[in-house]
Write a structure and sequence with these properties.
The chain has 179 residues and is an all-beta fold. The chain contains no helices and 14 strands.
Length: 179
């Protein structure tokens, strides 16, 4: 608590710093998780406690950074990434397929509670070459996401590739923001 006294009088509370606890990093890891085969599967996951999104407009932000095994490939080379909740791919207008010369795939998403059993998901994906130059960027939004927020959930980093180990999850971060 920040307090001030004017002219030696009683202290007046100006701000309670505990109120700044509205942003919390739930997870920030560098897992080096790789694809195991040729189907879309969760290659890493993080838990979201039941009741974490207790108030409308509470949200979690997800950041995933992937690298691909070979940068010089054709469009739709069979490498895909997606965000999942409880092991199920969130339908965001299809999976994100890599493009020619893709070396890095950056996926960002924001999952917001809109009611006790509904929410929305919005985010973006970037495909970058070996020098970090953007090859393609796209944004997405899904409304009507249906979850019971009082229950615990799992946020998944999902990937699929033509060969095992061809996509590597380099960074996985989840931040929680309270309204």
């Amino acid at each position: 608590i920040l307090q001030v006294s004017i002219d030696g009088g009683a202290y007046i509370s100006l701000y309670d710093f505990a109120a700044l606890a509205w942003v919390n990093v739930l997870s920030n890891t560098y897992p080096d998780s790789t694809t195991a085969g040729t189907t879309l599967t969760s290659i890493n996951s993080k838990s979201l406690a039941g009741g974490q999104l207790a108030t409308d407009e509470d949200e979690v932000e997800v950041y995933q950074l992937y690298t691909t095994g070979t940068a010089n490939e054709s469009v739709n080379s069979g490498k895909f990434v997606a965000i999942g909740i409880d092991g199920t791919e969130v339908d965001i207008s299809g999976r994100f397929a890599s493009f020619t010369n893709t070396k890095f795939i950056e996926l960002r998403a924001r999952l917001s509670r809109t009611s006790a059993t509904a929410g929305q998901l919005q985010g973006s994906v970037k495909f970058l070459d070996v020098d970090g130059v953007s090859l393609y960027e796209s944004s997405f939004a899904v409304t009507g996401v249906s979850y019971t927020w009082a229950s615990a959930h799992t946020i998944n980093a999902m990937a699929e590739s033509v060969a095992a180990g061809d996509i590597v999850l380099q960074a996985f971060e989840i931040k929680y923001s309270k309204k």
